[in-house]
Write a structure and sequence with these properties.
Largest sheet: 7 strands, mixed
Strand order of the largest sheet: 2-10-9-6-5-3-4
Bound molecules: ligand T4K
Radius of gyration: 22 Å
Number of strands: 17
Helix content: 25-40%
Structural class: alpha/beta
Shape: globular
Strand content: 15-25%
Number of helices: 13
Distance between the termini: 23 Å
Order of helices and strands: EHHEHEHEHEHEEEEEHEEHHEEEHHEHEH
Length: 383
């Protein structure tokens, strides 16, 4: 008989550095009274990230959504942008806030990223860019998308919100496309409480992003463009610096959790795991998605979600519903019927994964899933 967990197990739990370490950093802030507006800790954080990503073309923001909005504005993207309906709403919101028309096309079934063939088929004279998402940190079809973008003279922008720490070969995912946006939200593998980052190819655009995130100020008396306020503050930057030190350790722990989930769930009827990534991908284990096939599993994804809640396991349905099904985006044109995205959104479930999740708890979650499948299996035999 499986007992519910005493404390809720959420889909994620943010990593925090040792309390004393953060307090020590805070004392520097107390001393200097420099809290935000391009402070010394933000500069240090920026430098560390430039080293980590091996580029100077990098800019920090107070969150990923504003970073993406500013990226689109600073790059002068307009008209139509081909994008995915299978993502977090912020990807599409960033387009909408720039008065850009999102054109939703379908995804590929293995890693849930944009299908390059569908992208190409949706290009019109108004298309200016592709906005693709490395969903769960799985790299998009990088070469195929780059090829479409090059042949049609489109900008290629990646929402890499989930992809901090992901590499392809020895190259960080940040170096693909014209620009990438990373989210440093508390629920992400790497975080600065809230935060966002852009990395980009063209060095010259950095100045524009710096203006746009700081009201357009060039100096005390000159405003050169109508910017907004999207600055990262010192407490965020401090958290980022300290979390960065533990990144590899967190990835290692998450890889063991993923391995155990995959081992224990691989033979459960009706549970589909993501195929193994190509060996050249260094993954970050940011999420643990599974698909639930109602017929084979004997229970729908939503029923499994509710049953696990009774055991105090709070999974999430990232990403359901599809963006194009939210009332505010229903009027927007969709290219084709999006069969893969629809099917995935109906079946997807992301299981708890975070560095401090014990392997024994992972085992219990797998037992819960198995026992629900077996219970359903037995009841269908008796029917
Ligand atoms: N593009 C993509 C593809 C994204 O996934 C996101 C964000 C963005 C763009 C935008 O980036 P940001 O502007 O956020 O930097 C969460 C996050 O808020 C959001 O950042 C993230 N994607 C999205 C996938 O997930 P919710 O509404 O599911 O979060 P919430 O508050 O329900 O948290 C999930 C679970 O995490 C909770 O059940 C408990 C746990 N939790 C959460 C927080 C905030 C904690 O234990 N501690 C915490 O402080 O959106």
């Amino acid at each position: 008989m499986i007992k519910p967990f005493e404390k809720p197990i959420y889909v994620t739990k943010p990593f925090l550095p040792p309390f004393e370490e953060y307090c020590q950093g805070l004392s520097e802030i107390w001393e200097s009274r420099w809290l935000t507006n391009d402070g010394p800790i933000l500069r240090r954080f920026t430098k560390e990230l430039c080293n980590y990503f091996e580029t100077d073309n990098l800019c920090l923001f107070n969150n990923g959504t504003l970073a993406l909005q500013i990226a689109l504005q600073g790059m002068g993207i307009s008209g139509e942008v081909i994008t995915t309906p299978y993502t977090f709403v912020a990807t599409t919101h960033a387009l909408f806030w720039n008065k850009i028309r999102p054109i939703f096309v379908d995804i590929e079934p293995d890693y849930y990223t944009l299908d390059p063939e569908k992208v190409e088929a949706a290009i019109t004279p108004w298309t200016t860019a592709i906005l693709a998402v490395h969903v769960y940190g799985h790299p998009c079809k990088l070469n195929a998308l780059a090829d479409v973008a090059r042949r049609h003279n489109l900008k290629l922008i990646y929402d890499a919100a989930h992809a901090f720490g992901v590499k392809v070969g020895n190259t960080s995912i940040a170096h693909y496309g014209d620009l990438s946006m990373f989210s440093f939200h508390a629920t992400k593998l790497f975080h600065s409480i809230e935060g966002g980052m852009l990395t980009f190819k063209e060095a010259g655009i950095k100045g524009i992003f710096d203006y746009l995130k700081n009201f357009g100020f060039k100096n005390e008396v000159e405003v050169v463009m109508p910017g907004t306020n999207a600055k990262m503050n010192e407490m965020q930057a401090l958290m980022g610096i300290q979390v960065l030190k533990y990144l590899e350790e967190m990835i290692e722990k998450r890889s063991r959790i993923t391995e155990l989930y995959r081992e224990r769930l691989k033979e459960v009827p009706g549970i589909k795991l993501v195929p193994s990534l190509s060996p050249e991908v260094k993954y970050n284990y940011g999420y643990m998605p599974i698909e639930v096939d109602e017929k084979e599993f004997g229970m729908s994804r939503d029923a499994l979600y509710e049953e696990l809640k009774k055991w105090n396991v709070h999974t999430r349905r990232y990403f359901y519903p599809l963006i194009c099904d939210y009332p505010c985006y229903r009027s927007i044109s969709v290219n084709g019927t999006l069969p893969v995205a629809r099917r995935t959104a109906e079946r997807i479930m992301t299981l708890p994964i975070y560095d401090s999740l014990g392997l024994s708890d992972v085992g219990i979650i797998c037992d819960m899933i198995k026992s629900l499948q077996q219970r359903q299996g037995r009841s269908s035999i008796h029917r």
